[in-house]
Structures are given as C-alpha cells and as structure tokens.
Amino acid sequence: MENKITGTTRLTALFATPIRHSISPLIHNASFQKLGIDAVYLAFEVGKDKLPRAIESIRTLDMLGANLSMPNKQSAIEWMDELSDASRLIGAVNTIVNENGKLTGHITDGTGFMHNLQDNGIRVIGQKITIIGAGGAATAIIVQAALDGVKEISVFNLKDDFYTMIEKKLQEIETQTHCKISLYDLADQEKLESEISDSVLLVNATGVGMKPLEGQIPIKNLTKILRADLAVADVIYNPRETELLKQARLIGCKTTNGLGMLLYQGAAAFELWTGQKMPVAEIKPIILEA
Ligand code: NAD
Q1: What is the mean pLDDT of residues 243-268?
Q2: What is residue 108's three-state secondary structure?
Q3: Distance between CA 263 and CA 248 in Å, rounded?
Q4: Whose CA is nearest to atom 5 of ligand 1?
Q5: Domains (ranges, CATH) in the chain?
Q6: What's the CA-to-centroid distance between 202 and ligand 1, angstroms?
Q7: Which member of 54, 82, 121, 274 has the lowest number of beta carbons within 10 Å of its beta carbon?
Q8: Does the Cβ of 79 fall within 6 Å of ligand 1?
Q9: How many whole angstroms separate alpha carbon 41 and alpha carbon 65?
Q10: Which of 71, 77, 78 is closest to 86 using CA atoms?
Q11: Distance from CA of residue 96 to its chain's centroid?
Q12: Are 65 and 273 in contact (CB under 8 A)?
C-alpha cells in the first residue's frame, strides 16, 4: 500500500544526536506504509540544548509523539506530564505519547530486549542472568528483566561514575521487584567467572565492541568463561556480530545482537502511538538489508 502525505498526515519523530545513522525512520515509515496509517516518522538532530523546544513542538504541531535517544533520554524526564512505571524506575524516556497535549514518557528498550530474547528462544524467567554495564541500556534491561520475573541479576561494571550512580538505583529496583540484584567490579575476574557459571544468559550492555572499540570484548579470559549452554546477547547492532558474539558462536552458544532489541523497542513505541501492532515479520527483512 502506498500512503500519500496529505493535510491530515500526522508526524512522529526521533530527537537525538548524532542521528543520521538511525534506522528507526526506516522501521516506522515502512510500518505506517504497510498498515496504511496516515503518519510519517522523521529524524531531527536535537541535543540537550534544543530538547525543551523540541518537546514543546510535540504539543504545538499536534504530533502523535516522539522517540528520544542519546543524549536526551534522562533529561526529558522533567518535561513529561506523566511517566510509565518503568520510566520512573529507570529515570529515562525513549518514547513520548501525546494525548491532546498531555505528554506521557515511556521506556521501551527493556521490553524490546526481553521480547527479542523470547523471539530467539532464550528463556530467562525464574533464572539468573549476568549483565556487563550499568548505563542507560543496562538499567532498562535490568528493570524490565526484574519486572518480568528474572530471579537474580549480577551486574558488572568498571568502577566509574556509572558504578556509583547505579548502586542506589539497583537497591531500589530490588526492593520494588523482589529480584535479587548484585553489583560487582568488572575487574574482579574471579567473581565474574563464578557469577556467569550459574547464569543462563550473559549480556553486553556497553559500547565495547562497536566503534571506536570495535573488535574489543568487555571481559577477559572469555574462552574460559563461555560454555555452550550459556546464551550471549549484545545490545550492539553495528557491527551485526561483535567479537564477543563471534567467540560465543564459535563455542556453540546461542547468540543475539542488538537489532532485535531495536526492532521491538520500536514496535512497542509504534503500538503506543497507533494502537496497532507493528508488522514485525515484514519489517525484519527490511532492517537486515539496511
Ligand atoms: P551509557 O553511556 O549510558 O553507558 C555506557 C556503559 O558502558 C557504562 O556502564 C560504562 O561503565 C560502560 N563502559 C564504557 N567504556 C567501557 C569499557 N572500556 N569497558 C567496559 N565498560 C565500559 O550508554 P548506553 O546508552 O547504555 O549504551 C550502551 C550501548 O548500548 C551502546 O552501544 C548503544 O548503542 C547500545 N544501545 C542499543 C540499543 C538497542 O536497541 N539495541 C538501545 C540502547 C543502547
């Protein structure tokens, strides 16, 4: 179906910087076309300085809503009229829904990650998982995994600002979800090995493995740690196969990259704006080609 842009076409948008590499416009516009929805999705180069005005434009232009990415996810919180439970717990917004001028902030990264695991037959509910990273992507995954019923999460991070910032937040998530969550120093190799040994999934939620750290792995002695019945997920989708995923695949682990997370976080945003399910089966081949 070919949609025509007319006087009634509604706008959705992505506010982020850098933005020109984003495949979200491709995902959403193809979905609008396929379902015959009279809407378009455009990417706008918006950093923190322009964010308040960009958010106000959602009301001014009566947009359906917007997506936010780096560096806007945390700072958008203060401009929202309402927040979803996950958004409040994580302290970040990646999807804004406009209902007659009332803006509600949601975060769909975590649900996108969990949906992708399910899609790949990786079962984590009632199990233990280990996550490397404590930034935005990691926090979204931790919160959603805990809300969905993962039994235990071990988080490893460098002793940097992220470590200090997430310490209190993890305690709060633990109290609110009854999932056991522990934070460790990524330099503690012995602990890392023992925590992964009884985990069903290892997640890289850092940028280690993509430019400028392409070819690198966030943990040492990987071959000693990996085993064939451990699933390994990376939030990175460019490159499609990070060095971590390559090594894991060679050992026989089930692996998944960040494309599925990206697709399903988009699908959740799409549903919030339109009330309709994104036609993911038709969109998957389009993003694999992109
Ligand atoms: P962030 O800046 O909030 O967090 C960065 C994290 O990486 C921190 O935990 C930091 O301590 C850690 N880190 C930085 N350098 C490191 C190093 N050399 N060794 C080990 N750890 C290191 O970033 P973010 O928003 O959480 O994004 C992280 C990654 O997730 C990026 O690659 C981003 O593209 C990806 N991401 C993917 C999706 C998706 O849909 N697939 C969504 C969001 C983010």
Answers
A1: 97
A2: coil
A3: 23
A4: 135
A5: 10-108+261-289 (3.40.50.10860), 122-253 (3.40.50.720)
A6: 15
A7: 121
A8: no
A9: 10
A10: 77
A11: 15
A12: yes
> Ligand 1, closest atom to CA 161?
11
**Mean pLDDT within 92-111:** 97
Question: Is the pLDDT reported for residue 210 higher than 70?
Answer: yes
Q: Which of 34, 48, 50, 73 is catalytic?
A: 73
206 lines ligand 1 (CB under 6 A): yes
Predicted local distance difference test score (pLDDT) of residue 82: 98
Ligand 1 binding pocket includes 269 (Cβ within 6 Å): no
- Which protein residue has the closest C-alpha to ligand 1 atom 32? 207
State which amino acid sits at residue 281. Answer: A
C-beta 263 within 6 A of ligand 1:
no
**Overall average pLDDT of the 118-144 stretch:** 97
Q: Is 73 a catalytic residue?
A: yes
Query: pTM of this prediction?
Result: 0.94
What is the Cα–Cα distance from 79 to 73, expressed in whole angstroms? 11
Q: Is the CB of 86 under 6 A from ligand 1?
A: no
pLDDT at 3: 73
